[in-house]
Amino acid sequence: MSGRARGFVGVVGLVGVVAVAAATTYATVGLFDDTSENQSLNRPSLGLCVDSLTPSAGTEAPLGVVEGEQQIESDAKSALDATLLELSQTEPLWESAGLSKEPWVIDIGCSSLPLPLAFEGEWINGYEPRTERPPTVASASPYKVFVFVLPSEFEIEAMLGGGTRRVVSQEFVCTNLYGEGCTIVEVTKAVYLTESDVNEGAATIAPLLADAVGFRD
After folding, report:
1. Predicted structure pTM score
2. Is 110 within the bounds of a domain?
3. Lower CB density within 10 Å: C or N end of the chain?
């Protein structure tokens, strides 16, 4: 991702959770494939991207300015690759979800900021506020899952408004999926990991990726 943001502002959660807006659909297991006139989301393989984020009081730091950042992303990519290999061998739904047709892809550098930074609203316990319709993207990324690595649980909780959720919404599109105007569809998830999670590997990461891909409720 060119000009990736390397800083974020902590988010303070609101008291209470607002209701989910109507006409919002959430991603199902496997690859989302919509060839409607409004949106083409063919994803021939399972794609992930990984970004390391560091708190810097809301400023944007240039790539490489944070010591060890590139190593963290490289380690995360290796851990994700090993985790997907394990899931491909142990997850009963892997083949039926169409994930065995093409090799998965893991890129360093994601194409957009975490949704909490792009959405003008405060999150609580990993749930984005839905007083209005979720923000949509004109064209979805090729990635099914964005993976953001932060230094510790503290930074993740600040980003997501507290709580323990680590798999949240990342991208929505407006599509005529049902042939009746705009239906807002979630097409991409985000997984939030700590640097410690990366070091622990598949034992910690596998349940989160299984959730993000749609193998878990």
Report:
1. 0.77
2. yes
3. C
